[in-house]
């Protein structure tokens, strides 16, 4: 038993802090997912571009079509942080999309329920909304205006 614990601890020391996978292989770490949804109007003349990353994972530059959902999953430590940069026409925003294991982001306490594990970011014409799945619908609130 001690030998197995030593192996697990050694594995944890050499593995990256964030695991870009929906199948977290570390049994005691919580599993999270981030969704970035393009909810702009279908007649929008400009593309939505995003670039998301953490200290360990660069998820790349993406162009999302209206209705598309860019998502990723990971195991989270208390220090896990992901941020995204959003561009839409001449507008742009950059902020953390995950930095808190209870509320997605530290200032999400009045937006999502405690211990939310699926953080939903909806990009709309007037800004970016933070939300969560409530059954088969998304509850969200404006987080940042453009």
Protein model, in words:
It is found in: Secreted. One of its GO terms (cellular component) is extracellular region. Its main location: secreted. Belongs to the plant self-incompatibility (S1) protein family. Keywords: Secreted, Self-incompatibility, Signal. The protein has about 150 residues and is mainly beta. The chain has one domain (about 15-145): Immunoglobulin-like. The chain has 1 helix and 9 strands; from the N terminus they run αβββββββββ. The strands form 2 sheets. It has a 5-stranded mixed β-sheet, with no helix packed on it. The longest helix is centred in the first third of the chain and has 13 residues, at about 1-15. It is globular. Residues about 1-20 have low confidence and may be disordered.
Topology diagram in text:
Layout: H1 2-14, E1 31-38, E2 48-54, E3 58-64, E4 69-75, E5 82-88, E6 91-98, E7 118-124, E8 127-134, E9 137-145
Parallel strand pairs: 1-7
Antiparallel strand pairs: 1-4, 2-3, 2-5, 5-6, 7-8, 8-9
